[in-house]
Recover the amino acids of this structure.
């Protein structure tokens, strides 16, 4: 046995943990089974396929996103335009309502002036009392004076406004006149009422504004309606 071989064996006996191998051991030597090689995959094909699919997904999602955004923008613009139109219309209506309220206030104030203080109705046939300047409806003044005349005749049964004055011992005498007065201020009325034509026209203007028409039958406005209350010449 050669010397080198013998020395190697001795060294192996001394250090049993050391194993000298000149060649890599075979798996079969230790009872191990070699795993079968994995089949090679076509990575290039998968990469191409993945790239194509990813591109398709991005392209489809882009189309789906852009269309709703475009529609939403158009709808928002139309809504804003509609809001601007409605705001202008609302401002116009508000201004018109303010003007109408002003007109209604003026009409209401004027209507108070053409309303009779006795019957609380419009003075379709207004007459003014010259002594105090107050105006009332003809019918109300007639009724007011008729009441005074009735009371006066209780004291002077023979009173007649058309009775000629009597000359007694050179003195012209006649029975005293009834105590006619204004229904509002109670000032004595010595002269017969006068028709107020200006107020009569104003009454019809106000009535037309509020959609009211004048009565079909109005009391006579002739000056003769006061002849039974006042003599032709009150100074006599």
């Amino acid at each position: 046995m050669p010397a080198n071989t013998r020395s190697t064996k001795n060294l192996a006996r001394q250090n049993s943990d050391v194993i000298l191998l000149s060649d890599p051991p075979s798996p079969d030597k230790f009872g191990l089974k070699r795993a079968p090689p994995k089949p090679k995959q076509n990575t290039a094909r998968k990469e191409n396929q993945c790239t194509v699919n990813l591109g398709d997904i991005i392209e489809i999602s882009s189309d789906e996103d852009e269309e709703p955004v475009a529609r939403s923008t158009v709808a928002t613009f139309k809504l804003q335009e509609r809001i601007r139109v409605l705001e202008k219309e609302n401002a116009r209506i508000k201004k018109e309502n303010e003007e109408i309220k002003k007109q209604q206030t003026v009409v209401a104030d004027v209507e108070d002036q053409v309303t009779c203080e006795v019957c609380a109705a419009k003075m379709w046939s207004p007459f003014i009392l010259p002594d105090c300047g107050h105006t009332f409806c003809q019918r109300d003044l007639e009724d007011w004076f008729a009441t005074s005349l009735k009371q006066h005749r209780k004291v002077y049964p023979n009173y007649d406004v058309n009775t000629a004055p009597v000359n007694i011992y050179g003195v012209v005498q006649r029975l005293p006149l009834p105590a006619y007065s204004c229904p509002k201020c109670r000032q004595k009325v010595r002269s017969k009422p006068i028709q107020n034509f200006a107020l009569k026209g104003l009454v019809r203007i106000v009535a037309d504004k509020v959609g009211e028409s004048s009565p079909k039958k109005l009391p006579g406005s002739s000056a003769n309606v006061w002849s039974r209350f006042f003599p032709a010449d009150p100074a006599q």
Observations:
- Residues 15-22, 50-61 have pLDDT under 50 and may be disordered.
